Amino acid sequence: MKKEGSEMIRNKRVSACSLLWTVGLALAVAGSASAVQTLPIVQFSTSTIANGGCSGGAANTAIDVSIDPNGFVMAAFVLKFSVVPSEINLVSVAGATGITASGGAGGSQFSFGATFSTNQTTSFPVGTITVQGCVGGGQMVLTQQTFTDGDFNDTDVTTAVIAATVAGGGPSPTPTNTIEVPLASPTPTPTQVVAPKSTPTTKPAATATATKATPGAGTATPTKAAATSTLSGDLTATATTITLADASSFPNSGTVLIGSELISYTGKCGNQLTGATRGVNSTTATTHSSGAPVSLASTPATCPTCEDDDGCQIGARGHGGAWLLLIPAIGLLVVRRRSR
Predict the structure, then answer these.
(1) Residues 114 and 76: beta-carbon distance below 8 Å
(2) Strands (E), 212-335
(3) How many Cα atoms sit within 13 Å of 211 on the Cβ side?
(4) Per residue in 231-280, pLDDT tens?
(5) Are the C-beta atoms of 282 and 288 separated by less than 8 Å?
(6) Alpha carbon distances (Å) from 84 to 106, 108, 203
(7) How many other CB atoms are found less than 10 A from the CB of residue 203?
(8) Structure-derived torsion over alpha carbons of residues 182, 187, 191, 196, reported in degrees to the nearest 10
(9) Minimal CA–CA distance to 244: which of 222, 220, 276, 212?
(10) Element (H, E) at 111
(11) How far is it, in rounded angstroms, from Cα 292 to Cα 22?
């Protein structure tokens, strides 16, 4: 009888431990899955600007801007842009219905923004930017993207070059695809939270035309400059290794912009970006000449510096949620104590 009782207790311990291991693993997987957050996609009707020299008869280029929430419940947003007036002449900035636009003709900085009375979950137009290209190679830069969710938490994502003037004269080509600015993993900034989560659940009254911020001429540019360099040698349309003049400011993995082509890469070795995937986010893989500007478009969340067998740095994913695997060990201690 005593032996049967001991065997029963042992079986209960094994069953309890197996259950706890299963629950712990399931929670770990669920925790990892919940850490992935979708972010809005800012879309532009064209990525090229007609270069007419900004003289009397220079052609205008109208760039329509829209946002696809992409599963993000959006309560507000702010988009800020900048140009160098000697390279790109700002003709006008017009917001769509319910969207506030700031910045005037000839300016260097302009923006769109809105706080919605009803959270946005479907694509909507933001407005139209009308510009003239003054010199070949001029760039329009999206310097800030801030999105506020239904709980009034702000998420800031990376900057990106979204349009450039065409070298030489004549109108720009008609794009075949909508350009999507790649977004990095969310990096919430507590100091920019609109309201703490402990505030009442009812949202403050706001009209659709109100803006979260009203930036004007002279507003601050990004607090951290994006990594930039130039090509150290010609780049073919099929090359998977990008050699830069200086890659020290680039992360171990991410997405870079060369001309109008977005290229993702998975590793870095010295001044080389390796494991490149050409023409991502609906852009077209093409050749690039030595000395062409290279800028960082987005950076995925990574673990501390990782290296391969040759000592080259490679990107890696984080391991948030691994702490959940401690649950089975804690459960085992509880079961042992109760069985004594």
Answers:
(1) yes
(2) 228-230, 242-243, 254-258, 261-265, 267-269, 272-274, 293-298, 306-307, 313-314
(3) 18
(4) 999 999 999 999 999 999 999 999 999 999 999 999 999 999 999 999 99
(5) no
(6) 10, 6, 39
(7) 17
(8) 100
(9) 276
(10) strand 109-120
(11) 53
